[in-house]
Amino acid sequence: MLTLLHCLTLLLLLLTLAPLSRRPQWWIRGLDFPRLQLLALATALAALYMVPLLNSKAPAHVLVIGLAISLGCAIEHGRRLIAYSRFARPELESCPATGEQSVVRIMIANVLMSNRQYSKLVELVSAQEPDLVLFLESDKAWVHSAGE
Question: Could you read off the pLDDT of 80-108 as tens digits, one per residue?
């Protein structure tokens, strides 16, 4: 049981340290996203280290090291997640309410390069009158047709 606990702690440590390297590989950058799950794993591992530590059935120094690693990983993930919680100060203050409601209208269209029905999209944009239009999966033909 302790061997499994140590292996999971080592895996947790690797998953925590890898994103700190700033390497561009997708599998390293992807580890920036499951922080909540890794925080839960780190907390669970820290709690599991407490059981044998309180029973004194295993070498205490090994358990304390594992507990410290688990808590350190939990602190690191918690530190990164706190910015997205209610406890963090907002980066932007709320705008004061005015008599008019200010609205920005955004239109996003996934046009698919093989689609060549330019006029239908131009008509839709004209009818909706958005402030900002974003075309996804467009190519040069779409760019030239949108300029017409």
Answer: 999 889 888 888 777 776 666 677 889 99
Q: Which among 65, 63, 12, 21 has a CA at the least distance from the CA of 39?
A: 12
Per-residue tokens: 146: 């949108």
User: Hey, what amino acid is at 52?
Assistant: P
pLDDT of 135 reads 85
* H or E element, residue 48: helix 35-55
pTM: 0.64
CA trace torsion 63, 68, 69, 74 (10° rounding): 130
Which strand (E) or helix (H) includes residue 135?
strand 132-136
Exposed (0-12), middle (13-18) or buried (19+): which is 69, by Cβ within 10 Å? buried
Q: 47-50, long-range: CB within 8 Å, 24+ apart, which pairs?
A: 48/5, 49/5, 49/9
